[in-house]
Amino acid sequence: MFRVTRVMALMALLLLSTTLVPARETRAQQGVPATELDPAFAVEWMDLLYQKVMLEEYTPPAAARLYAYAGITLYESIVWGLPTNQSLGGQLNGLGALPFPEDGEYDWAAVADAALGTVLHALTYESSDETRAAFLTMREEQLAARLDEVGDEAVINRSIEYGDELAAEIVDWSEADGYRETRGRKYDAPTGDPSLWVLTNPDLPALEPYFGEVRTFALYYTDECDVRLDMPFNTEPESTFYRQALEVMTVGNDLSREQRDIAQYWLDNLGETGTPAGHWLLIENQLVEQLDLTLDLAAQMYGMVNIAMADSFTSCWGLKYRVLLLRPETYINEYINPRWRPYITTPMFPEYPSGHSTVSGAAAEMLTALFGQVAFTDSSKVQFGMGSRAYTSFDAAAQEAAISRLYGGIHYRAAIENGMDMGRCVALHALDRIVMNQLTQGE
Questions:
Q1: Do 284 and 305 touch, CB atoms closer than 8 A?
Q2: 1 SS3 class
Q3: Cα–Cα distances in Å, from 313 out to 180, 284, 306?
Q4: Which residue in 371, 370, 388 sits closest to 379, CA to CA?
Q5: Cβ distance 372 to 443 under 8 Å?
Q6: Start-end of H helices in 234-388
Q7: Cα–Cα distance for residue pair 73/69, rounded to 1 Å
Q8: What is the tens place of the pLDDT at every residue in 100-158?
Q9: Domains of the chain by range and CATH?
């Protein structure tokens, strides 16, 4: 009841808010409104990005960052083709006013194609030449298709020029987010306390130890949604910590076929998939068709959900490397069973909180705010030889994603439950601070 009331109040405020929106008479652009354009091209862009994130083995936080910039770029590309929506300029951290299109006719899909190709080519500077070229190839193919459909070269050229101008501003903004400064920095994990995390594979480096320093999008500071670890480290058998570790081992020793399937379905390893945020991105892609979204609603979804996922990962990673809690495998081997191994290989970063839980909590909270309670079937893993899974709501999917980490043997229950709360907090802060426009609610 609290969430429904809060969201309804927020949506009412969005309708009333005009402080950031230029007067309607300044929107002198002509052409087909973005609300009437087919969003299929946007789905193609997001799918291409997912595939390249997987190919280039982007880490989960780095992947979420890319998805956020893609969603923001898409939304900003079409915002002036919408009758009442407003720019994110001035609403996201470090993002000033973005270029305003000059008077004239624009094809908003072409603006988006131009901007997305330029932004993704620039932001994937760490990737192979083939991957970066793929974004430029997609750009040219999509723009050629738009020219065939619109049939007016002057309109397409004007749209490309504006898309490139917009992209240049977004790229400049991204370069100041601190991401580059986190690359290649040496990290030595602290020692001397039995609760501290240790690498389960000392031959591999710690994953993204400095990502918590990357600028967030909607959170004012990285630790704004931190949920403190409310389970003191203890090795006594009657302690909560011991019992939660014992639960991980006990559940892992007797997994049902369904539990193994769930653990595998939400695994989303880097290099094998497009990471956990990418799993939700593919769910977004499917919702475009299921909910018959128009381009404006699809762009708002990609913008808001992807921002929430990126901030949830940055927030989660910052807390991981502040708490530095040891993994269940380490604790169990030391205090319960030295031969025990988890169903899923223990990742190379600290335990608390669970990243899957945090990002899934954020994605589900945001999707529910946008569309209400929606039952859906997720077929994103069919491409990996898995079947589809049906859910009665976004939260049901998030709960399954979260508990999959207990089945996998890599998280205590505290990290799962608190991670979900942390992700929900991130999404609610984004909803409070970002004004796009009223979004269609589910029935």
A1: yes
A2: coil
A3: 17, 18, 11
A4: 388
A5: yes
A6: 240-253, 257-265, 275-290, 295-323, 328-335, 355-371
A7: 6
A8: 999 999 999 999 999 999 999 999 999 999 999 999 999 999 999 999 999 999 999 99
A9: 22-180 (1.10.606.20), 198-433 (1.10.606.20)
